[in-house]
Design goal:
Blueprint (H helix, E strand, L loop, with lengths): L1 E5 L7 H17 L3 E4 L6 H9 L3 E3 L9 E4 L6 H9 L3 E4 L3 H15 L3 E5 L5 H9 L5 E3 L2 H5 L3 E8 L5 H12 L2 E6 L5 H16 L2 E5 L5 H12 L4 E4 L15 E6 L5 H15 L2 E5 L2 E4 L1
Parallel strand pairs: 1-12, 1-13, 2-3, 2-4, 4-5, 6-7, 6-8, 8-9, 10-11, 10-12
Antiparallel strand pairs: 13-14
The chain binds iron/sulfur cluster.
Iron/sulfur cluster binds next to helix 1, helix 4 and helix 8.
Length: 292
């Protein structure tokens, strides 16, 4: 019998749930005058749904004159928030507490006189927010090669919340070479770590991995990279209709995981399409011996 294994941790994390809840509450209070700069979470389908409910997603803060502004889950540079407050907007800060922790630890390290290294994607909104929290006085790196080029007496390190654990360990090892004193704060989000660990375990025992979530979502993209690096054929999709039957030729078991901003409805749709493609397949929650 063919099997579909669904990750126990697949889907919404607490940070994304919190952001959506705060946005819905704001929309209930003041429909049509609620704004976000860019996507409040990296899930295009969910953002579209919130737009249907009245959320205004803008790409430039100059488009916002009044109303309520939601700070997205990844945070926002301080100067944007100051400017919007000056214009009299009500600010609802939906920055995930784990992201806040990265900002806070970065500030602490700067205050203590450490040369700050931020490990992550320099183009990601979370990292732009962390840089802003320390007045841009930090270096962003994302590879072991870059880490090996860092040298200094007192170097402090924080990580993007969704950075993969094994890559973080490699970078730490790379930094040891050139730094006399290295102070590292583990700012990886445990919800991301749970997903990554489970995805690795699944990728080791199934024939194919399906990773569901926004292509612009760092944690989803990293999940797909991690399972592919385990040698398991991996497909990253946003919606069920992207599944292609030829991916499953000769396949007996499929692992399914999803990023932290992927709602359960999307996962259910993928399971339903997978069942059709595979024919008669049992659906299990990974690591739990109960048929779904
Ligand atoms: S993945 Fe972690 S850091 Fe990102 S929003 Fe969710 S809980 Fe927060």
């Amino acid at each position: 019998m063919k099997r579909i294994e669904i990750g126990r941790f697949a889907g919404f994390c607490s940070g994304v749930e919190r952001t959506i809840r705060m946005t819905m509450e704001a929309l209930n209070k003041d429909k049509n005058r609620v704004y976000s700069l860019g996507q409040i979470i990296h899930n295009p389908q969910m953002v579209r749904r919130l737009e249907e409910l009245g959320l205004n997603v803008v790409s430039d803060i100059n488009e916002i004159k009044e109303g309520i502004f939601i700070v997205r889950s990844h945070g926002l540079p301080d100067n944007y928030i100051r400017e919007l407050k000056k214009r009299g907007l009500k600010i609802i800060d939906a920055t995930c507490p784990f992201v806040k922790k990265v900002q806070e630890k970065a500030r602490v390290l700067k205050k203590q006189g450490y040369e700050l290294i931020i490990v992550g994607d320099s183009q990601h909104p979370e990292i732009k927010g962390v840089l802003s929290a320390v007045s841009e006085k930090a270096t962003v790196i994302s590879t072991k090669d870059e880490a090996e080029l860092v040298s200094g007496k007192r170097v402090g390190v924080v990580f993007q919340t969704t950075f993969p654990l094994s890559w973080s360990q490699d970078i730490e090892a790379g930094l040891l070479d050139g730094c006399q004193e290295l102070k590292v704060y583990n700012t990886l989000c445990f919800e991301t770590l749970n997903r990554q660990k489970e995805a690795i375990e699944m990728a080791r025992v199934v024939d194919v991995m399906i990773v569901v979530g926004g292509k612009n979502s760092a944690n989803t993209t990293n999940l797909a990279k991690i399972t592919a690096s385990c040698g398991c054929p991996t497909y990253h999709i946003e919606e069920a209709r992207e599944l292609q039957s030829e991916w499953f030729d000769g396949v007996c078991s499929v692992g399914l995981t999803a990023g932290a901003s992927t709602q359960s409805l999307l996962i259910d749709e993928v399971v339903s399409n997978l069942k059709q493609i595979l024919g008669d397949a049992e659906v299990h929650i990974f690591g739990v011996d109960l048929q779904k």
